[in-house]
């Protein structure tokens, strides 16, 4: 049978087309169900990707790190927990290797990442427990900020320690009153020595 009015098909053709389309959709649904059943039988559970995970994945894909920094993931499937290593090549902390843990909650980006320094270091903006005094990790955090902003902030702390907003008040006073003495104490602490009564971790980068 030939086509009639332009744009119109015979009823039999329309039925065949509609039936074929329905079969295709049914086959797709069946395949998806079969795949899900196979995963269940194998004990595989596919987790739903959350909004926080999607945002972190985006931030990480856009992350621009200099050669003095790198990220490490203990679990490649867990983007919400990772480490950042900073190896300053200038400033008072040159030659050191500093590792920070990032713990990101499901509230991200409405809640700032939790960042801790793994090593015990002598720094006015990092206390002896590894807590970091960085304004964007506290009151100045906004959802428009990203992981890149935090990385840049941490990098800046090693280039320009800030004595006006300290967590380690003794180190801050040392920096304010005797900058050269502070530099000596930083080098002493980085070598695993003590400053006053407090001993610090050795953080000098191991030569390859």
UniProtKB/TrEMBL annotation:
SUPFAM superfamilies the UniProt entry points to: UBC-like (SSF54495)
- The residues annotated as the active site are 133
Gene Ontology terms for molecular function? ATP binding; NEDD8 conjugating enzyme activity
Q: Does the keyword Methyltransferase apply?
A: no
For this protein, the record's PROSITE patterns field holds:
UBC_1, UBC_2
Fetch the SMART domains from UniProt.
UBCc
Report the protein name in the record.
NEDD8-conjugating enzyme UBC12
- Name the source organism: Lachnellula suecica
Q: What is the lineage of its organism?
A: Eukaryota, Fungi, Dikarya, Ascomycota, Pezizomycotina
